[in-house]
């Protein structure tokens, strides 16, 4: 309620006169109309599932987006097929020969290499044969 | 009792009809009264009342029970919607104290005394107030809100509301002078036997 101090500027006569304006009466049918409108928009079941929203803090959203992009990038990279040696212009026999040939060495490694501990050289002449 | 209105509001927004009915029954009258006194017609007030309740259900998290009561919050929404409607009608809603329109010659004070009932004269005088003064008078005088509550609804400070109330009362005293003491009592107010 309003205190006396708040009404220090007040004029009792004016107040009485203002109170002669009766409060508006709620029209018939307003309640039904509003309740019907509320039922139309009320969330429920599948409608709620499809229209519901959640609030996500921006840093969390950015972090999730980065994780998603990174995961997608790594997954694509892992599933990319190795480049084929066969060119589309190769004929059938050439492709068959390539398939039958031992795999082309594209990488060398010195792993397991042991140098000779003792080297013995021998000279073979033509006359000796 | 306003305890748990934020909880009720969240339940209502999740589709709990009983919670909505409880809140609606509790607040529909002040919401409608304020809208009707601001806008002047039942139809416009009904629209605003409906929009107010639906919008508060859409964003229940916007209501913070520790800052204001739900009634104050709802009146704030009504105020926003009512000022929007008034702006659509071409009413200036931002001026604190626009110049008063001169009284029409057809309806001078004496004619008003003779023709109008006091209630009608008050209604017209309040409706003639600038919107920022009107809302303050309605909330303070008719809805019985404190200055702090009016300030919360109007998104303003108590000093500004006091100034608006003062200017509104000045205008009302001038507009309703024929009905106040020292003037001839209007026919409509003369309830005493002659």
Structure commentary:
Chain A has 129 residues and is an all-alpha fold. Chain A has 5 helices and no strands. Chain A is rod-shaped. The termini of chain A are far apart. Chain B has helices spanning 5-13, 17-39, 42-58, 70-88, 109-115, 118-127, 131-142, 147-153, 158-175. Chain B is elongated, with a radius of gyration of 19 Å. Chain B is built from 9 helices and no strands.
Write the layout of secondary structure elements.
The complex is a heterodimer of chains A (129) and B (194).
Chain A: H1 12-18, H2 30-41, H3 45-51, H4 58-79, H5 92-100
Chain B: H1 5-13, H2 17-39, H3 42-58, H4 70-88, H5 109-115, H6 118-127, H7 131-142, H8 147-153, H9 158-175
Helix pairs in contact in B: 1-2, 2-3, 2-4, 3-4, 4-8, 7-9, 8-9
The radius of gyration computed from the alpha-carbon positions of chain B, rounded to a whole number of angstroms, is: 19 Å
Largest interface: A-B, 33 and 45 residues
List low-pLDDT spans of chain A. Answer: none
| Multimeric organization | heterodimer
Short description:
Chain A contains 5 helices and no strands. Chain A is an all-alpha fold. The model of chain A has no long low-confidence stretch (mean pLDDT 77).
Short descriptors:
heterodimer; A: 129 residues; mainly alpha; rod-shaped; B: mainly alpha; 0% strand; elongated; disordered C terminus
